[in-house]
Specification:
Ubiquitin-like (UB roll); 19 helices; 16-stranded antiparallel β-barrel; alpha+beta
Length: about 1000
Amino acid sequence: MRRQRDRQQRWHAAVVGMFVALALAPPATAQLAPQPAAQPAEVRESFNAADWAGHTVLEVTVTIAGEATVDPRWVSLIETPPGAQLSLVDLRTTLLHFFNTGMFQAVDATIAPVGNAGGIRVTYRLTPAQTVSGLTFRGDLGLDAGELRRIVVDRFGAQPAPGRAEAAADVLTAQLTARGFVQARVTTTIETDARGRSTMRFDIAAGRRARVGRVSIEAEGLSPRIRGELDLKTGEIYDRPDIERQLDEVRSRLRRDGHYEASALVRPTPAGTSPAGDPLVDVAITIVPGPLVTLRFEGDPLPEARRAELVPVAREASVDEDLLEDSLRRIEQFLHQQGHWKAEVGYRRDATPGGVAVTFTVTAGEVFRIGRIDVEGIRALTATEIATVLQASPGDIFVESTVDSQTAALRERYRRAGHRDIRIESLMEERAVEAAEVPKAGRGGLVDVRLIVDEGAQVKIGAVRLAGLDGVPEADLRPKLTLAPGAPFYEPLVATDRDALSAALFDLGYDRARVVSTVTPVAGQTAVDITYDVAQGTLVRVGRILVVGNRRTATETIVRALTLKPGDPLGLSQVYESQRSLRALGLFRRVTITDVGEDGESRRDLVITVEEAAPTSIGYGAGVEAGRYLRPETTGGQATEKFELAGRGFFEIGRQNLWGSNRSVNLFTRGTLRPSGVAEAGGGSDFGFNEYRVLLSFRDPSVFDVADTRITGYFEQAVRSSFNFARRGILAEAARQFKDRVTVIGSYSLSTVRLFEERIAPEDRPDIDRLFPQVRISKLQSAVRRDSRDDLLDPTKGFVVGLDSDLALRALGSQVGFAKGYGEFYAYRTIATKRRVVLAGAVRLGLARGFEREAERLDDAGNPILDENGEPIVDVVTDLPASERFFTGGENTVRGFARDSLGDAGTLDPNGFPTGGHALTVLNAELRAPLWRELGGVVFLDAGNVFRRVSDLDLSALRPSAGFGFRYKSPLGPVRIDFGFRLTSRSDVPDVDEPSYAVHFSIGQAF
């Protein structure tokens, strides 16, 4: 922000200079508005703005490019309203308001008397700033318009400044010339409409394209094979980039052959015109292969795979002395890391016929290992604390740099404990290996490491004082400090606390705050006092909020999203939060917030500059879903797990920023083509069951500035393991976010669900499914969720806790009633920071209860079934509808099972198809670790089950599974494949064999 403010000072100076010129200039009315004829000429000549201070403003006019406007955006910036007495400060402030918007390249004011009563008219004249909103290309372009546009955009951006027009024309001319249009002429003009929007127009006369004239190649000593790689003939189209590409290939081949300093240059020369009238360009190519460099290694061998890295002459295309010296040091460091403590490396250059030979002589010497490690003088730290820092042990390969780094870490550990004068002397002594002393030593030598520690006195903190505060409660700043009285003194934390105090003051609006720290020894004690002297500066508050760049979005929508309001302290954190809040609206490509004003002023305007995104968004895609699903071998047959592939595609179109607010409407459609899984008598599969989902939603993210609301109409058709269903309905929901990432949601839904193609035998179906194959559900829903994850797709720390509840009542229009609750808890923790190893766990619990209701039993035609007395048979149902019951098993729950297949005798029919239950428990634990580049691996342990009634819930009946999987970090999120294995067998469902494993493929983590 400070750099932006410095840039604004030049603008302010221009405005102030304009205003001073206005005040000292000859009469404004003489220049810009006619004076009454009776007024003496000398009065007109002595007229200036100061003469009118205190006069009553009767009229105020704003003109843009000479046309009067009453646009509220500009009228609201006026500080000299009609009826007020003219103040020069208010006049100047108004001019700054207009200028600070960045929309005008010039602003000024004129003052003229109105009538004979001493009133005045103030006219603000605004000259729009030219902004290039588009690029156009006309004439004989030579190249494709899209390519020309890319050339300009790559160099000058999508909206180049009008002042760069000539430079853009020069760049286009140079590019056209290089592509063979050597006679190209490019001119440019700026076309501006009445609203100040400009188009940069390029008029191009490319002319005829040049052809290659005479070709000469100077390349002594090169083989015909390399010469033949140049595909350049007389009469071909001249294209400089294509020639350079060919020369790059020649240079690359020469360097691969050992000519590391090879060069290839092209010199084009105009050569008149051909008989056909085309311009000709003679092409002279000079190829200098340079010396043939031979790399040799003598003495002890280096790994072949590491030589190019240690001596990068091929990569750097050079064999200069600096590069060879660096290579020598790299080889020495490599050998030292292997334990060759006394390795010696040298090199020499020898002339050879046609080149040079560079020979590295390597004397690795013995591999040294650590003998004894002695640490003397330790009193303040325990052996365990020392061991956590000094991780080397006898028998390890001795690397001097590692010992030095661990010694430095021990020194830093002492300083953190308050020993500011700690000194550690490290001694390394070579000795011969004693018999059986260090089994891993081999034939090499031993190095005894001896650390002599002089701890010095422990220094503690005496008093911590804050001086110079004026109006800021000390209690508000104390929590920012990490150093406290009585704690060990660690000097780097003084600077940390000083910066924290400065940041806190900036957040409070003191933009020129300065904090100076002083550390003073306490006489007679091993302690220090710390004093932070605070110079707060001026408290700056928000003045006007000026919004620039919004064409479709209402200014009120933008201002409402800001966390800063006029009069608030101008804190940096609030500026960043406001910027984040605006970006979260999803309406803008770019958002910048700049504070403008003079140094020392207690108020500054905020200029919010936005670049709106396209209001219409379209998305589409296709993919394949793979997994194991329960399917019957024949109609009414046993459930069998089968591996299936299903094609899936989606299309989405949305319109944002409706009516200039952040309201939006979105249409989402998805279709899946999957096999039904029922084998026909003649073999094969009944392929073609269509799943689909259509959602039409309207969203208003700030109803009454309180809640994010959404109304969604939907209809869908899907396949489950035991049945297919079609559902249609409407959902209205409102969400409110609170601090600490807490979200509360309330909703109401009304839907109709129809079951068909049920795989469960009629006699085994729950009563509610037989009585209500099509059921209307009207329910109230509520949810609360706390999410502290650091990454939504691939978290490494944080947790999620959520509670959901549903209540369906017949009084609300539902055909059945029930209460349902679902809780979930996910936790993530990084247990190895360097390797990014993450331990993740999840607990999920669902409970439901159906309310009793009576229903007449119907036949297939929908008529009541009568008993022997002719009365309708009435059943009492307490189950939940199939669409509301709990199911588990699959890629996101218990991965040793196919989707929905987990259950017991109460939730599986005799053929093994799930009927669902009223209680659910799922437990997960997973260890995630990177393997290679973007590939990661996991091992997991899952357990869970579904129970028919809440009273049946039994944790000892949970079915466990374990397995492993792989994760690939793609731009869409982690692509995963999991292999789950069941750890127990199912014995309570007769005549059903369970597979011992399941494979799942999907995108995103399991939880």
